[in-house]
Amino acid sequence: MTTLRLRQPAVALPSDRSFWLQDIGADAVTEPMQGSERADVLIVGGGYTGLWTALRIRELAPETRVIVLEADLCGSGASGRNGGQVHSWFAELDQISAVVGLEEARQLCADTATSIAELRGLQQSGTIDMDLRLDGWLWTASSKAQEGAWDRAVALTAAVGEDRFKPLTADDIKRRTGSSASYVGVVETNAGTVHPAKLAAGLRKLALTRGVIIHERSPVLDIETGKMCRVRTALGTVQAEKVVLAANAWLSALPELRRHLYVVGSEVIATAAIPELLDGIGWRDGASICDSQAQVLYYQRTTKGRVVFGRGSGDVAFGGNFGGGFNRSPRHGRDNLRELHRVYPELRGVRIDHDWAGPIDCVPEHVPVFDHLRDHPNIFYGMGFNGTGIAQTAIGGRILASLVLERKDRWSASGLVGIGRRMALPPEPFRYLGARLVGSAVRRKNEAEIHNRKADKITNLLSRLKPGYRKK
Fold this sequence. Notes:
Layout: E1 3-5, H1 19-23, E2 35-44, H2 48-60, E3 66-69, H3 78-81, E4 85-86, H4 93-100, H5 102-124, E5 137-141, H6 151-159, E6 165-168, H7 170-177, E7 184-188, E8 192-193, H8 196-209, E9 213-215, E10 220-224, E11 229-233, E12 236-245, H9 255-258, E13 262-271, H10 275-281, E14 288-291, E15 297-301, E16 307-316, H11 334-343, E17 352-362, E18 369-373, E19 376-383, H12 392-404, H13 430-449, H14 457-463
Parallel strand pairs: 2-3, 2-12, 3-9, 5-14, 12-19
Antiparallel strand pairs: 1-10, 4-8, 5-7, 6-7, 10-11, 11-12, 13-16, 13-17, 14-15, 15-16, 18-19
């Protein structure tokens, strides 16, 4: 018998929570785990992946007793901290096809489009009020180095018979976003934005109505493995035949997974509500917008006229070990603010009401992986959404449900299942030192290129070592 010890989360202070969570006054609605319980399936993590997995299991096998243990409140991790961008996997078709082959990659990308339709159906039926607006996803360039970043994805998408992207001119982008910083790009029309915390809270409510048992404020301390697993929290235990680990970046606590997983930070800011000003510059709809710099830049206008503006921080956790510093950066979004003013000089002087940060689970291929732990066939996991998960975790839930229920179907047979074929990362301290070296080069290259300058040769060489690097 082996005991797996999980890393305890540093719960964010109320003032450090994301705008989304503060906007709805998010809080736990279920009781902490106490005493002893028994489950057919125990899910660790109450974010999108955990909740979708619970829902899929109950859909397929309604008699299954499913318990979810969430360390804080459902959606308090990446699910409630992200930028609220909803788009399919077609932008990553080349990366996914490198893992699973072109035909399955095409199908998985189409599945995420179906997931977006599922979200629309949940909203239109009144099941979940998530502020979903399918006004498109704009993938743009705001400097010469970014031009054509989408060419491979667009060409490959067309080659498999999918018509997902439309070209954008400078006038199109200016009319849609109110900014002239980006001047060329493409748009995925069946995409847009969502209120992440409302979606998480809605999935929690839906899971509860469908018989899933949820215990919030119940961090898992450890798991005693065996034919019947014993999952221990501070106040109780759950005996479970099968366990699903859906804990995002916190899975880095397990050495077996840490070999393939690295943790990076992302920072987001939200302005005061300025609907009249945004209307005045022509930014009225709910499109999600990205430019193509290496330090991912993403933004949206909320339904009430705030600007939510996010960017990769470049921070890397040594040994995957991160604490409260990843909840809110000491920089308080200064880099984001500078970029906001580059993209929207009209917003200089607008008050920033919120800044927050958070860890993201990344794998080198930038394509999630699903499997069971090597020596524990009844303990499953899904990880590596790399910050793109609102439509994608719904697919992850299908894969995990089929694995847990031992179904022989396209989900359990997916090429996304199996970590043995995935790249392993160097051990520490080499991984951290290399990440700092490469990350510094990426930042230098990025800073040069967004101002249409060229980085030096060594910086260019080092930046190409970044996991997931795409050569145009």
